[in-house]
Amino acid sequence: MREMRLGRRAVTDRARIRAIIDACQVLRIGAQDAEGVFVVPVNFGVDWEDGAPLPRFYLHSARAGRKAEAFRAAGARVAVELDIDRGTIEGDYSCAYSRSYASIMGSGTVHEVADAGERVRALELIMARAAPGAPASFTREGLERVAVFRIDVDRMSAKERSPR
Known about the structure:
- This protein is an alpha+beta fold.
- The protein contains four helices and seven strands.
- The longest helix is centred in the C-terminal third of the chain and has 15 residues, at 116-130.
- The model has no long low-confidence stretch (mean pLDDT 90).
């Protein structure tokens, strides 16, 4: 993996990386299909699977459409991005202005989840992030209407720029 250009901004502490992910509400996924490259923002759930060094992200989708079709391609690779915007860093001149942020970037392989138990767990993780404390129950009909995908992350980096 390529070394980060501004290494002083790299976040390598696993607990800090997890905290950044936990603070994010939107996962952006970059994918490619016959029409070209596209990015889609999604609600997501995250599973660190018994202390694994890299997370697994879950998302739900309609069963049909560009995203679902691209994700079903054998061995589909995707890029992932999450970020926290902390506001403007003011400078003494125009080009000295910047942003304070924390971000995660990575890539992995996307898989459609077929196992009923994993599908329910994935939807519970998504609900817990989207609406903490809200009850999560799923009807058989509801589960049949939705596609559930898992992204197995195999590369990930994190960085942050603190405010002055």
